[in-house]
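Lab notebook, bench 4. Continuing the backlog of folding jobs that were queued last week. Each job is logged with the same field layout so the records can be merged later without manual cleanup. Today's entry covers Aldehyde dehydrogenase family protein, a 468-residue chain. Filled in by technician R.K.

JOB TYPE: sequence-to-structure
TARGET: Aldehyde dehydrogenase family protein
LENGTH: 468
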Amino acid sequence: METYESLLAAVTAADGGRPVSDPATGEVLGRAPERGTGDLEQAVAAARTAQPDWESLGHEERSRLLNTAADAVDRSAEALAHLISREQGKPLNGPGSRFEAGGVSAWLRATAATPLEPERVLDDESGQATLGYRAAGLVGAIGPWNWPALIATWQFAPALRMGNTVVMKPSEHTPLSVLALAAIVNRVLPEGVLTVLPGGGDLGAAMVAHPAFDKLMFTGSTRTGRAITAASAANLPRLTLELGGNDPGIVLPDADPAAIAEDLFWGAFINTGQTCAALKRLYVHESLHDEVAEALAGVAARMPMGPGTDEASMLGPLTTAGQFRIVDDLVAQAAAAGGRLITGGGPDREAPGNFFPATLVTGPPADAPLVVEEQFGPALPIIAYSDLDEVITHANALDVGLGASVWSGDVERAKQVASRIEAGTIWINKHGTVHPMVPFGGVKGSGYGLEFGAEGLKSVAVPQVIAT
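JOB STATUS: finished
OUTPUT FIELD FOLLOWS
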């Protein structure tokens, strides 16, 4: 049985490389190889060579290989989960690293099983026309550090299923998890089909400007997404950009605070708040405001925070010291502006690790940075409202629109409110749940393009019409 130690040893640089630290302790757990533009050229050449044969295998055989890769991930899932916990920080349990490792194999299987048949778009006396999809060619993917293995799978699995080859650059904060995942699935895949190149921002910049890529996929900040759009424009690659969000949740006056409290909590605090589509600002009708805040504080008190490898932990450290400082500053500004910390705040800045307690802030000003900027951490502003039209205006006021949620005892009423919110996905009485068959993507500054399901397969392919 593969162990964490053997998996780590397989992907750690023999000498040199970039040190990777455990965010719970600050200790270096390994060193990632550092690749440059020469390595990129070799990877591109190998992927270009491998792509025609990979595409010619057909959907059935490629799907079989993805399922076999999922079997390999399942056999190494526990080792992969421990590596994710040590490198990224999320706990083994709850919606943590075992959940992430399991999601990798689940998404591989779902991607393999998703049907995408040619569509007859015209069939009458004037003629016939069929719309189908074929591989784009070479896909370049750049991933984030918050769900490193799972989001890598969201990128490479559909691309491979559609007959593309893939060159990936993981975040420099979490390269080992993605290298380990690639090592596992490449036991099954042909050579050159999937290559992972760890490196810094210079390598990412070289990728997005490289003319060999037919498709680019990026998950990360809106600022970087805009830079990628500009840098790649001369080559006209197709783009899928899943960018930042500042998801609002609206609690209607007929909601049951006790019934929704735990789902609200995990909507906001999954992965210690480090999720693009997490609940990041909560608007509660004034008649329920205090009761919802109290119920959330009760849930927070029951959730132990500690190192990800501690079986008791339900919340882990922030992945980077920089993210710790961002959350710390936003909470301090909200408190200085009149917000009330009902739980959390006041982290131990001298203790090892990037631990910031789950924090609830009531009554911050509507324009407080904690409300209008993406905190990407365990701090949730809770804002009372009285007028529904006004709160919908507040929900739509920002230049992001990844997700949102409406909480109510009347689902049909909640759907009516949801239809007025500017976001790619609006959940009812839950937040941030994704499914491999349900398309997911943002609007406005949260990017464009869809992932998951048949629409996700189409996004990593090129349409082709055959007309007679």
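OBSERVATION: Residues 118 and 132 are 5 Å apart (CA to CA).
SIGNED: R.K.
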